[in-house]
């Protein structure tokens, strides 16, 4: 019962932060699941299960978050369309490759990735040009990398899509909203890949590398609380959002490294 309560609280917090920062919640869900599932999942597949479950939960979180941001008219759908095809390919291939990576490699890769993105967001590093001037192949390559890395570390892609768009002169609130939208195809392709990759590990409480009880608990609460996060995101200063985003990533990287 205590574990169930913690999973529901995790869903509340991750859903709110997904709406607020457009991160899909995986950056919060994965570190938490490493601790919550440690007693019921073998360590050899613990990281894969945490990542696969996070991606599956993000499918539901993204639907709620995207609708909330769309109602504010903040999503740039033309950027979403440019990124999505290669994001789908990258996310599926990343999920299939992740099954062969060790727990420690995934854990350290995840933490280093969060630290790098935190530094980019904190210092507000940006390009000299604008996103509309990027070539078609830049969009294709960027989408693939976002999808691939997102699937390996179990995130909705907001930690890369948001910095990518803000780096190329897109306002942070629109970048967050658009990132929330791109998180949906990442989560769909990535979670399907983890289900297929972990099919041989199925138990009565799992579907491939997706833990069913954790998924249902997190998804239920995150869907409810994501719209609240999106509402707050459109009422506070963009600079404050960037700093909050960076601090969250830095703290979570320390949590993963300490596991």
TrEMBL record:
Cell location: Cell membrane; Membrane
Keywords assigned by UniProt, alphabetized: Cell membrane, Membrane, Transmembrane, Transmembrane helix
Membrane topology: Multi-pass membrane protein
Chain segments annotated as transmembrane: 6-38, 50-70, 76-98, 105-125, 137-155, 176-197, 209-229, 241-258
Domain of life: Bacteria
Pfam families the record matches: TauE
Gene Ontology terms: cellular component: plasma membrane
Family, per entry: Belongs to the 4-toluene sulfonate uptake permease (TSUP) (TC 2.A.102) family.
UniProt name for this protein: Probable membrane transporter protein
Organism whose genome encodes this protein: Bathymodiolus thermophilus thioautotrophic gill symbiont
Classification lineage: Bacteria, Pseudomonadati, Pseudomonadota, Gammaproteobacteria, sulfur-oxidizing symbionts
